Amino acid sequence: MVEEQDLCVTRVPIFQGLTRQEQIKVAGFARPVVAVKGETVFAPGQPVSRLLVMHAGRLKISHLAPSGQEQILRTAAEGDVVGERTFLTGYRPEHYAVALEDSRMCVFDHRDLSTLLRDYPDIGMRMLRTLSDRLASVERLLAAITSAGVTARIAAYLLDLPADVRDGVPAVRLPIAKKDVAAYLGTTPETLSRSFAALAADGAIELRGRRDVLILDIDALEQAATVTG
Amino acid sequence: MVEEQDLCVTRVPIFQGLTRQEQIKVAGFARPVVAVKGETVFAPGQPVSRLLVMHAGRLKISHLAPSGQEQILRTAAEGDVVGERTFLTGYRPEHYAVALEDSRMCVFDHRDLSTLLRDYPDIGMRMLRTLSDRLASVERLLAAITSAGVTARIAAYLLDLPADVRDGVPAVRLPIAKKDVAAYLGTTPETLSRSFAALAADGAIELRGRRDVLILDIDALEQAATVTG
DNA sequence: CCGTTTCCTTGACGTGGGTCAAGTCCCGTC
DNA sequence: GACGGGACTTGACCCACGTCAAGGAAACGG
Question: Is B216 helix (H, G, I), strand (E, B) or coil?
Fold first, then answer.
């Protein structure tokens, strides 16, 4: 039981600075939650103000425009935190969080915020880091979307993914479905598909199945990423 | 002298929670800086990691794509803070900060960060608030840019500006030049101009001089803001 | 193994908006 | 008040991308 909650805390960067003793106490504030694939963990307007600490699985954080256009802001995996803003301010969520896989997480409620920050100032320090990283990442995404064409964005996105080696050539695996990549890059599945085809025609990449991309020519890919498009 | 530095601290939200005594001590860490209109306060890659606290004037914070496209992220006026990320992490700036007017500000250096946060935990708490507000604002901008047409974005932008009354009709004054509004909204001056013309043709607005916009028909403007465009 | 669903791809088409170029209008400066 | 330069507008052009529509390919559940 303590073990279960303990895991919520030990693997997560924002709690790394705490001693074992402190971690156990902090874990006392957490409540375990599970979500099955496809489940909506929170939605805009819901009266919850909680910090989610991902323990297993993955969440998709997205914004839905009145037109129905979905903009994916990020995905959160083990060790990531979600909902800082609602936790910090007590406001209601502005985004959707949907489980991409069966997920386990712990939640901290807004009403424990001041207690936690007062007793464990290091948590605040690390949350500041996390938030500023997130801010930088969203600003980069914004700059990419407004300044470059779709093909360039995809190329940059592929180059950012962790690569392993498959059949002697570097390869990446898309962490989310192509339609979600499209929503993340601010475009549509159709355009994304065409851009992939264009990169493949250039000999830069080769699509293997639905999720895997072989990188045949890194130079060509990097050039595609920097061209205005 | 103490007066001068004192002002750096008292009017700024992130220092509001401090007692007078504490404010004076904190001000001791600050160094006053001035910038004339057009001056670049910091640029990407410069070896400075400082927090700027705006005292007078305005800064434009923008990102320059390799293609030369400028994306304006925000403007900072009195009471705003700039450079949290460099201050928090010690990293170098990723954006440009250019003075739109003659400006005065105080700077805090990264090497004083841990001292400040340790001795005045409330500052950290308020910085968390500020950062999460900024994050939400950038996310809204991102959603707006990817989901709506330029005319809708402009309409929403106008509706967000503080309005006063001129000649009996509500009017707003653009806080930055039109070309900068264009860069902020992720478009070009030409397209912006055309969209203004379209809104004027609809009878929603009327342009008065270079900076003032009369709002003739709020309903029409609100409708334009919600149409997918 | 099959049916169903969801995802992905391809084609055709229209258009929003970016680009280039040529004025015109402000506005600060002398 | 005249000048100069940046800001703004307008026009013409065109291309990237979104939309609609249809077909195919995985994945999933039973």
Answer: coil
